[in-house]
TrEMBL record:
Gene Ontology terms for molecular function: RNA-directed DNA polymerase activity
Transmembrane parts of this sequence: none
Keyword Nucleotidyltransferase included in the entry's annotation: yes
Gene from which the chain derives: pol_3454
Naturally occurring in which organism (per UniProt): Araneus ventricosus
Name assigned to this protein: RNA-directed DNA polymerase from mobile element jockey
Region annotated Disordered, chain positions: 249-270
Amino acid sequence: MYISQNEQLNIYDGTLWRRTERLKSKRSEIPQLKNPGTNLPSHTDLEKAEIIADHLESQFTPNDFGDPNTERTVENSIREFKNEIRTSKFKKVQPSEIICFMKHIKINKAPGIDSITNKMLKNLPLKIILKLTEIFNHMLNFRHFPNCWKTARVLPILKPGKDLTHPVSYRPISLIPTLSKLGEKLILNRYLTHATKLRLPIPQQFGFTPQLSTTRGNFGPYNFVFFIQKLAQNFYGKLPDINNPEITKIPVSDHNDKQNRKRPRMTISL
């Protein structure tokens, strides 16, 4: 089997170079991690995974900056929305949408927890495409996103120059199934069509907006501070001292990790 795989390698689709890089690279295993709570080292892969999972759980815990009245209003609105019987029609998923999505996915991407690679999806027969179309239409009709598509496979990657024994030294990479990405894409396209028709998006909304991201939402406060600095320069003839403790500094660390949203399930791969 290994010989037959090597015979299929060629220089045009990148398989030969990927196999060469894989043979040249050294696989670095995660050493013993220190438990931040007990400061004791881990001895098994399960203990390492638990330490990293506990660290990620604390990192993804939302900041408690909300107003209680606003939180209650949002919860009540969501509850009413879920209990409401809606008769609105949605655009049914067509096989052409799935085929178009499959054409644009990259085959060298790592699979999610289902181990279904993009190369497999690109070679699906039409019969399976039609079955997937039926599944996605049922998903929209019953307003149910499968739980298995919400589970991410998390790979901890060591940050350059960081201590190997501390869990904070590893950044997570979440791998979700490609079919989950396809389901999100189908929902997003229908949301954008509906929102644009009703003019729902506001200028301050950066998430789920084409050509914008939540990271760009952080630029607003910094632009405001820059404007105040220029105003002070014109008034006083010089810029204010940024080292002055009276000047407010805006922390934006882990902004996207601590948004108020439900944390998806995840599995840690070492």
